[in-house]
Fold DNA damage-inducible protein 1.
Amino acid sequence: MRITVMTPDEQIINIDIDRDESVENLKALLEVETQVELQKQQLLYNGKEMRNTERLSALGVNEGDLVMMVSLSSSSGSINELSFNPDGSAVNPAAFQQHVRNDSNLMAQLFQSDPELAQVVLGNDLNKLQAILRERHRQKSELRRQQEEELALLYADPFDVEAQKKIEAAIRQKGIDENWAAALEHNPEAFARVVMLYVDMEVNGVPLKAFVDSGAQSTIISKSCAERCGLLRLLDQRYKGIAHGVGQSEILGRIHVAPIKIGNQFYPCSFLVLDSPNMEFLFGLDMLRKHQCIIDLKENVLRVAGGEVSAPFLPEKDIPSHFMDEERLSKEASSSGAQATSGAKENSNILSGDHSSGTGRGGLAQNRDFEAKVTKLVELGFGREAVIQALKFFEGNEEQAAGYLFGG
């Protein structure tokens, strides 16, 4: 393995040495490199003195670790300034920071191996420096513990059921770690945040950013957005309901048709109105199908009417910051399809006659009650479709619907 040794005159020396070598042999190698006699060397690892008879492996020294070398002729104050506490933090963080800053070789090595620590060293926040030193110490301790456990499992009793379970878990975790490392190397973009698909549209002459979601069955507009677009006056409250997803939102009703502008073309659009703060305007599958839209991810555009009009998907910088909020975006991504689907189901229930209570809640009991009324009126000799329309018109009132049918 290779370790890094910092000498009293601020030189950085990389030493290749076996983990099972003694500290005394390490000092002998350093004597050749630094011309400091073995007897005058004192080595510190994690703030503790390394004794000549101890093995590097027993001290927990691993690949890439830092060992401090001080001369016995140095003052005890100098030793303490560059040593570490048991939790891995520096005894004197300011002195440690200045010491590392002054060594260009060490800084170059840090930028290669640990850019986060290098940036903190160059900063002015000593508390952050101490925190990251503690974290690195914790990570090394955890790695050392895992290595010790793996070593112990190699010599475990093959008939010990618990030991075999641990071996199986270790093998599985190793496969996961290798898969993760391969993904980092060959598919790093998979770890980046995916920007959702937004396009510029105009709804009733008002420009807005529309979220394109082919996983949502219905096109949705929020109450506040509908009000801004001057469409609330067209709200049909007979289509009220509850959209269930991650949480739930109230369906205030439906706007049956309004003009939307994509590019230079106008298209008719209908949408559900939701009382939801998590989205503004969602262009769902119903309108994507109606207007023969194509989500072209190669050219990064939304094609409308089979390619008649193309609207580019917006880059992240052009999407309003509140749309990119992590919490809201995750809710939209996970629930938009569920909410829109629920809304579409509510709408489907209403269209099939779910107005027996006038609220359009779509409950199972209401469906059964409505169907019972339909059956009763059909038995009187009226056509099923006429009965459904009559019940819808009179919001489920059986007597008024019967009077209307008899009068017709």
User: Anything to note?
Assistant: The chain has four domains: 2-149, 156-192, 198-350, 354-407. The first strand starts at residue 2 and ends at 6. The longest helix spans residues 126-154.
